[in-house]
Every structure is written in structure tokens, then in C-alpha cells.
Automatic annotation (TrEMBL):
This is Amino acid permease. It comes from Candidatus Nitrosacidococcus tergens. Keywords: Membrane, Transmembrane, Transmembrane helix. The chain crosses the membrane at residues 6-22, 50-69. It comes from the Bacteria.
Length: 70
């Protein structure tokens, strides 16, 4: 189950990266967007979507952190 949810979470994070996160100037907005998308997966969802939401928040925050790492 972890592998299948991780695949879906990485697809969502890559879509976020190519559509929004790559163009942002501030990391705070990036963290906010990623956490907001993760929370939407958590709200009134089955178990798989809850795991996907947690993994989206983790992977997304990692991607934003790596982008602004200097």
C-alpha cells in the first residue's frame, strides 16, 4: 500500500512542481500550497487518500526545501 500511495503522491507533487511551484519566488507560498493540497486529500477521505495526503505534504515540502536550499 505504501508503494502505490507513494506513486500517486509523487505524480501529484510533480504536477504541482511543473504548474506552480517552479515559478514561485517565496518558499512560504510553496509550503502553503503543498500543505493545502495535502489537507484536501485528508478531509473526509478513505484511508488511501489520507496516506496520499500525508505523503504529498512530505514530498512537497521536501521539494520546496531543496529548491530554496543554498
Amino acid at each position: 500500500m505504501l508503494f502505490s500511495t507513494l506513486i500517486l503522491a509523487s505524480i501529484v507533487v510533480s504536477l504541482l512542481w511543473f504548474s506552480i511551484l517552479q515559478k514561485l519566488e517565496s518558499p512560504k507560498i510553496g509550503y502553503f500550497i503543498v500543505i493545502l493540497v495535502g489537507i484536501t486529500f485528508l478531509y473526509r477521505s478513505p484511508v488511501h487518500s489520507i496516506y496520499i495526503g500525508i505523503e504529498i505534504m512530505g514530498l512537497g515540502c521536501l521539494v520546496v526545501w531543496i529548491k530554496y536550499l543554498k
